[in-house]
């Protein structure tokens, strides 16, 4: 009743002043929510719910048939007492260290070399990007053919010189490097494209000004090009850290974590724990550790780059 | 340090398209030379060729007798101010200005002294630690000029440096450039499509059109004695009036009969002029309202009035249907629709032949 009275009062004042309130076109409207609702539904169902469900599950003794009983941090204790898990963390960091700097640097070099309007450059850009569209199965198949001992491409080439090729798929010192090479070959397209688009944003006239300022090639790169694409460089590094921490398919298909777990990354450990031994609680706990690692790495990278950006 | 620049038979092609053809010109030491022309006439290309940002397909460019068109841009001893300023966005103003000096290993003490001097001259001392993104358009412009000054170049090249400024700032910067020019003794080449910039700044103007030079001369030369119909059209506002005339000769000078029958005695010498139809050009300021009782006036009807304050432009439709622009005093009482008589000053006329080449009326007051 009070509402009604208020509404009526508002109406009369409106009539009295002879003015209608003009709707602000930028004011939030609840019906605008309809436009984001479809995305929001999928975001909540497929990302948020599993995220928290995983956290919850990591605190339980879960298997394929039931969520089981609450065990507190027991799964985490088990994890950090598991030598293979610790080794998997080490392997994953090693792999990130092998791939991310290489991807950023090779991507940048390719972009610098192919940032021109010639037909050859366009064809080469397409070729370098083409590997990105292949599935991990195809990529690992190709690189197995290269690395496989006896009749692989590498063995054949070494054979021409009467030498034996390094055993990339069985030497514990080399397997991670083999997986890294295949991964770099597979993933180089995205960094290259990001760097290319950043390079094309740099106005041409500042290069002309630099030429008039007697800047040589290296000086121009260091003082003009690199500062202009620094943000993209950080973006590429963050994206690749997040991606490469999740190494799975290549390791699973090329070496299956062997020999002696030296090429077992975190995700493969999670897969084995959760879906081979059906120890879902342990797998969930390992997933949370991976989540935390990626988050920390990305945040550190972000913070460092932001501080640098303010200095410059 | 200053330089005499010699451009000899220069040609520039992009694929099958020729942008500049066999163009020669010399810029004197300490001269302020303006390249004036419409968009696409090749004036910027010519400037960029001097700077070394475009290759030269034929011909040579020399500074003080030394050929420079084969040298890289940095070694030509010139500085350029770009239309977009082309400041390095991630460097401070001070770094922007010292970048070129550091690259040729100028001692830090010298750099500091030159920066301080330029900052004082351009009044940008308080901006030295800022980045270009934090500056206004006019301030960026000053920094760009400062970056050129500290190099102490043999010649300054300006590529339409005022065109990104708003109207008021453009006028102010133009005046400042003129002042700067008196303090920095150096050869300067300035490209513009704005005739006012050309007229106000230049010692000499090079009017360019369609791959070639139309005329080289002092601003007043260009204005008073345009060598071609293009120059007459391009320079001066409002544009010169052109009308078809039939010529006859009287006492050595030409008499032009306009298409409505009125006769205009000019002071254009008649020798060597083929009789018959030609085009007569006369600027608005030489077309005035006739005094009462004047002879040889041209009648017409006012269609448009443009009141500019200090003067009034009258767009008058003549009897033969053509339009002529006349000038009247600022407080003109003429109204649209008025029938008025115009008197044309025959001593300020220009005659253009079929190829557009001009001959000019002689100023009889100076004999």
Please provide a written account of the structure.
The complex is a heterodimer of chains A (312) and B (367). Chain A has 15 helices and no strands. With 312 residues, chain A is an all-alpha fold. The N and C termini of chain A lie far apart (63 Å). The mean pLDDT of chain A is 85. Chain B is α+β, with helices and mostly antiparallel strands and 367 residues long. Chain B has two domains: 5-234, Rossmann fold (3-Layer(aba) Sandwich); 241-366, OB fold (Dihydrolipoamide Acetyltransferase, E2P) (Beta Barrel), CATH 2.40.50.140. Chain B contains eight helices and 21 strands. Chain B has helices spanning 43-51, 93-103, 108-122, 137-149, 167-183, 195-201, 219-224, 229-234, and strands at 5-14, 17-27, 32-36, 58-63, 66-67, 78-81, 155-159, 187-192, 204-209, 212-217, 241-250, 253-258, 263-269, 276-282, 287-289, 298-307, 311-318, 323-329, 339-344, 349-352, 358-360. Chain B is elongated. The mean pLDDT of chain B is 89. At the A-B interface, helix 10 and helix 11 of A face strand 6 and helix 2 of B.
